Amino acid sequence: MNETILQNYAKLIAVSGANVQRGQEVVLYAQLDQPAFVAMVAEACYQAGARAVRVEWSHQAIERLDAQYRTPEALGEVREWEKARLQDMADTLPCRIYLESEDPDGLAGLDADKIAAAHQNKRRVAKPYRDRMEGRHQWCIAAVPGAAWARKLFPDAAPAEAEERLWEAILSASRALDGDPIANWEAHNRDLKARCDHLNSLGIAALRYTAGNGTDLRVGMMPRGRFRGGADVNRMGVRYNPNIPSEEVFISPMRGEAEGIVHSTMPLSYQSQLIEDFSIRFEKGRAVEVHAAKNEALLKKMIAMDENAAYLGECALVPYDSPIRSAGLLFYSTLFDENAACHLALGAGYCDTLDRYEELTLEECHQLGINDSILHCDFMIGSADLAIDAETFGGKTVPIFRNGNWAF
């Protein structure tokens, strides 16, 4: 891939994505797949004024060995030095940048229960520290090609060609292949903000989803709920883009207010396994019945992760003609696939979707209806015939989506 294009992408991640502030530290998480590009991102962070950039490398092959050979207790253990590191992050609030490149099948065939239990324990320990950071720092998730990931998407191509094609797909979806990526994102954010402003002007009390596949779901909203999309602003007033790419306009619904059934329209990649052709039925906000043509047991385990994992934490609106869906690829990565279609998320909601959330404590956000869980898992429900209507607090019904796309 052209080096200038990659340098511009690195700058996009550091400046528009994380928006590194002068004197701020950066923690950069990456696999071993693209070390030269990781160095580009680190340099872009320093050029933006970073005090220090710490790269935390990982290697999926070692993660697989850990999961295979460690005891369940050892796999889920969080040592005191790890807690100290979490405490330091909560105290210093560094930017966090994640560069995804994992093999979608990298953990396939392992003991899913063992891995899930370990993840749950680690998340429980980390949660108080994460809660302290909530809304107070910047983070950005982006992607680079991994060799196995590229081979998964382009199995008939030679390794170098597969990697190049995945670079092109990532950069195109991230608005970083043509023109000035930062200017492209500024224009994209203006469009997303205009849609959010319109939706927020309606006073939406509930969203009603219907489609020919049997989806018929009503999800209630909070009076203080607000749609967000694209750039975010933390409690310190710093503007950043948490996801590159992003096509969604999203809101966190009222916990406990979801009734009906929804059907998936794309496979869900979870723990290196695909959950396919599934449906979820909600009563009083909770998922009470699930069915799946493939990996139904895994879906049931997911929504039983904790007491709130079966409640919704996000409703995201993505047009069916989004550039990511139009690319015709299943990326096997939530970062991309969630931006190919409207989706819902089970588990934790987002406090910053409440009006004036910066005036609220985390506990107050949860009391107002934001769901609290160690899980947050997106699943796609958008289709070519999806219709979404907004029921307003004023008693009106307003079309939001028709035939899978925006109705305004």
Description of the molecule:
The model has no long low-confidence stretch (mean pLDDT 94). The chain has helices at residues 3-17, 35-47, 60-69, 72-75, 80-92, 112-133, 147-153, 159-173, 181-201, 296-303, 323-326, 334-337, 362-368, and strands at residues 25-30, 52-57, 95-100, 139-143, 204-210, 216-220, 228-229, 232-233, 239-240, 249-251, 258-263, 268-270, 273-283, 286-294, 312-317, 343-347, 376-380, 387-392, 397-402, 405-406. It has 13 helices and 20 strands. The strands form four sheets. Strands 5, 6, 11, 12, 13, 14, 18, 19 and 20 form a nine-stranded antiparallel sheet that branches. It has a five-stranded antiparallel sheet with strand order 7-10-15-16-17, with helices on one face. The chain is 35% helix and 25% strand. It has 408 residues and is an alpha+beta fold. Helix 7 (147-153) crosses helix 8 (159-173).
Tell me the layout of helices and strands.
Elements: H1 3-17, E1 25-30, H2 35-47, E2 52-57, H3 60-69, H4 72-75, H5 80-92, E3 95-100, H6 112-133, E4 139-143, H7 147-153, H8 159-173, H9 181-201, E5 204-210, E6 216-220, E7 228-229, E8 232-233, E9 239-240, E10 249-251, E11 258-263, E12 268-270, E13 273-283, E14 286-294, H10 296-303, E15 312-317, H11 323-326, H12 334-337, E16 343-347, H13 362-368, E17 376-380, E18 387-392, E19 397-402, E20 405-406
Parallel strand pairs: 1-2, 1-3, 3-4
Antiparallel strand pairs: 5-6, 5-18, 6-11, 7-10, 8-9, 10-15, 11-13, 12-13, 13-14, 15-16, 16-17, 18-19, 19-20
